[in-house]
């Protein structure tokens, strides 16, 4: 079951990144052009919130069953960069990103002007994107060695 969940978590990241980049680009463009905050932008931010929270749930399940997470011997886990990454770094950065995306969605709805809504979506989501990109186990890193980034091809 663990390999299936890892694969699902890995594939779902593409949806998270797709919607996150789309919301960032769209909110920046609409903010700069002072365009209205329409239903399509609202739905995109909602879809981003949904896939992000699905990814979080999968991640938390994986965290609880992963052989790479070591909660019982934290002192020794902190000395091993790979165990430390999976036990502390990855989950911490990803939870911060989910919180930022959630705050962006909730707080944006309370703003009065369309420009303020786009600006809020842009800034909080761009920071979330930076956290996510920093927390992805890229193939060229020690924690990502042997992993494939694009559907198992690269």
Q: Total domains, how many?
A: 1
Helix fraction by DSSP (H/I, runs of at least 4) = over 70%
Main pleated sheet: none
Proportion of strand residues: under 5%
**Parts with pLDDT < 50 across at least 5 consecutive residues:** none
User: How large is the count of helical segments?
Assistant: 5
Q: What is the averaged pLDDT score?
A: 89
- Radius of gyration computed on alpha carbons: 17 Å
How far apart the termini lie comes to 24 Å
What is the tally of beta strands? 0
Oligomer: single chain
Gross geometry: elongated
Order of helices and strands: HHHHH
Structural class: mainly alpha
What do these coordinates show?
- With 154 residues, the protein is mainly alpha-helical.
- The protein has one domain.
- The protein has helices at 2-33, 39-65, 74-79, 81-110, 114-135.
- The longest helix has 32 residues, at 2-33.
- The relative contact order is 0.14.
Q: Keywords for this structure?
A:
mainly alpha, 154 residues, single chain, 5 helices
Write the layout of secondary structure elements.
Elements lengths: L1 H32 L5 H27 L8 H6 L1 H30 L3 H22 L19
At a glance:
With 154 residues, the protein is mostly helical. The chain is 76% helix and 0% strand.
